[in-house]
Amino acid sequence: MQRVIISDDHAMLSMMFKIWIQQLGLDVEVLATPTTGKATIDAVLLHMPDVLIQDMMLSDLDGVFIIQEIRKEFPMLKIFAMSAKPAYAKGALDAGANGCLLKVDHPHVIQQALEWDTSQGTWISPLLQEKIMTANIYLRRYDFTQSESNVLRLAHLPNTEIAEALDLSEGTVRNVFTILYQKLGTTIRADLADLAHNVLLLNPSPDA
Fold first, then answer.
1. Model pTM?
2. Which residues have a Cβ under 8 Å from the Cβ of 11 and sit 6 or more positions away?
3. Nearest CA to 106 among 76, 75, 137, 128?
4. Within 10 Å of residue 201's Cβ, how many Cβ atoms?
5. How many Å apart are CA 127 and CA 113, to the nearest integer?
6. In whole angstroms, what is the distance from residue 44 CA to residue 105 CA?
7. Partners of 78 in the beta sheet?
8. Chain centre to alpha carbon of residue 61
């Protein structure tokens, strides 16, 4: 039997995952469903599970930090990151996750993750794989410079915050946006942010 912890700040979603696992008839016991990062770390230390399904955005800690901290103590623990935002997948894998799934994935995808042999490498849900392939196609098409990519992934922030995060002048940020508007054929800032995070899968975190 696999012993699993599901960490998500929405208790109802964790409960839904638990019900799905039961309905699928899997040989799995859900040990805990913590809703904060601190509670997650404490639960893993207490229960020492076989699998952790980790949300990437909790109220107190982000998923990358949680995965990094847990991975230090439990190098063999099977960790699957999950998020509503596909853009967080790379950060999760870099932090030490064995795989990634999306909150909109079909329940049977959870079964695939739990049955995955981590010796075979990284596991990524089929829907997320499709989104990553699409992102790579667009990134090759637009051939962004590093500066353009950095500014674009922070397009949801005010120029002052982007300038501070990237150590640029506000004038430079405005100039980069002018180039991005021309490349992408839009003058609407929200469209840039949506494209960056949901199509190109650029991590929106200022610290990335």
1. 0.84
2. 33, 35
3. 128
4. 23
5. 13
6. 24
7. 51
8. 13
